[in-house]
Design goal:
The structure is a homodimer.
Chain A (H helix, E strand, L loop, with lengths): L1 H10 L7 E3 L3 H10 L4 E3 L2 H4 L5 E4 L3 H14 L5 E4 L5 H10 L5 E7 L20 E5 L6 H13 L3 E4 L2 H25 L10 H7 L6 H10 L1 H24 L2 H18 L2
Parallel strand pairs in A: 1-2, 3-4, 4-5, 6-7
Antiparallel strand pairs in A: 5-6
Helix pairs in contact in A: 4-5, 7-10, 10-11
Chain lengths: ~270, ~270
């Protein structure tokens, strides 16, 4: 994600300097080679010293600490955001810990793929995709507008929500969906895989995502994910019951409902 | 499917005449306009009268009757196949009903999409996709080889299986997968759909398929689909339990298993 944002910022001439901060020298060199950043450093305090905007793109479990660290070293007028897939816990924790100094507003660009690293960065990753911004009553209007303009400038469709509304929605559309895809892949016996055609491939595609990252995301949004999973299980049980009874009319009704919802979203 | 086969046959110069048989004059005219067939008729007995090969592309519930009807009117040396998504019931029934005359061998090209009709026909639909051929002990070797050469000539990767092995494999990779996708789409509340990004779109894509066709497929393979659904539910329950306990180690293990299976198939 960081790489794609860096590429887009340069391609759209929105930033002269894009500083990549990371721990591994090899990854930073790779990022420079791929042109996703204009310079790199392993020292966060140096990377953020002259920043206008800081985007924390670490796994969700590290976001709060990295934001706090950045806040200690960046100019007071800088704005800090993140790209984490969960928001409530992160935003709540940061409201508690960042009492003064630079402002933080949570963001979640709903894009990305199971392929990570600078080599897979794409300048158009966010174009036409939703990016959620999650201000709170304590966020200044000027800061909300500034972060919304930033994502919009990268081509994203910006949606403003509360952190909890965000977490409830993505619990179903992303997190429970991930579990379903992974559980389906895991349940498919090796002997059946030669008949795994495009339907199975689409339905399980996200199961290829990085398990380390997903464990963090799922645990960070656990109560909401369990609720969404319950809703899915209830839905599947009605399909199963209709099939078990051989009830063609009911099964048709259920498949129709699924199709209508799916059709409403588009490809 | 019929349209795509017709296009491919002409593009690859494998047939001079491709006769489209159907009930609705408007659909047949559309097929001629799209160039998927060279001629059309609403009368099956005329359409098959001089055929070398007959491919029944109706919904699964109609296949047995259409094959029997074709067998009564086609030359005795013609070969009949189908493209149905289930095989055991169809093959068993036809072995019983077709005691002499033209041979039938079941086929299942594992391709297609949620978009149907001649306007969506694609000459390369089968290229590099698996097509299953399901002979039985009563099928003559020469006929098996003939039908396998036919599908291979259209670019398909041909796999030979028993009808039951086929039905067991697709029960998981296609039929239970369809129910899971449809149940997930149906379970997603309207208010969450604005955050349905590419992950949800991929996972639920097949839920857009024609409910009428899917009811028939699911009912035709009901015992196997229910078994596969049970395996999926068991798999999902282990994921859920690990998440509910907050057991990061176990959750990682499970997600890893899903990823390994998914990675083994490719995109």
């Amino acid at each position: 994600m960081g790489g794609s944002i860096g590429l887009a910022l340069q391609q759209r001439k929105l930033a002269r300097r894009v500083v990549g901060v990371g721990r591994r020298v090899a990854s930073l060199r790779k990022a420079r080679e791929c042109g996703t950043v204009t310079e790199t450093t392993t020292r966060l305090e140096r990377g953020v010293a002259e920043a206008d905007l800081i985007i924390v793109c670490t796994p969700v479990a590290d976001i709060v600490d990295r934001v706090c660290e950045a806040a200690r070293h960046c100019p007071p007028e800088a704005l800090i955001t993140d790209v984490g897939s969960t928001k409530s816990r992160i935003v709540r924790e940061l409201e508690r810990r960042l009492r003064s100094g630079p402002a933080f507003i949570g963001s979640h660009p709903m894009a990305g793929s199971e392929k990570t690293g600078p080599a897979h960065a794409r300048a158009d990753l966010l174009v036409e995709r939703v990016t959620v911004v999650t201000p709170t009553p304590r966020t200044r209007d000027a800061d909300v507008e500034r972060i919304e303009r930033f994502w919009a400038a990268l081509g994203a469709r910006v949606v403003r929500m509360t952190p909890l509304d965000h977490d409830q929605a993505v619990a179903m559309t992303s997190h429970a969906t991930h579990l379903v895809a992974a559980a389906l892949a895991a349940a498919t016996p090796a002997c059946a895989l030669s008949l795994a055609a495009s339907g199975w491939q689409d339905t399980t595609r996200i199961a290829a995502g990085d398990p380390q990252l997903w464990v963090q995301i799922l645990l960070a949004n656990r109560p909401e994910v369990l609720k969404s999973l319950g809703q899915f299980e209830k839905s599947l049980a009605t399909f199963r019951a209709a099939l078990a009874r051989g009830d063609a009319t009911r099964l048709l009704q259920l498949l129709d409902a699924g199709k209508q919802t799916r059709d409403s979203v588009g490809s």
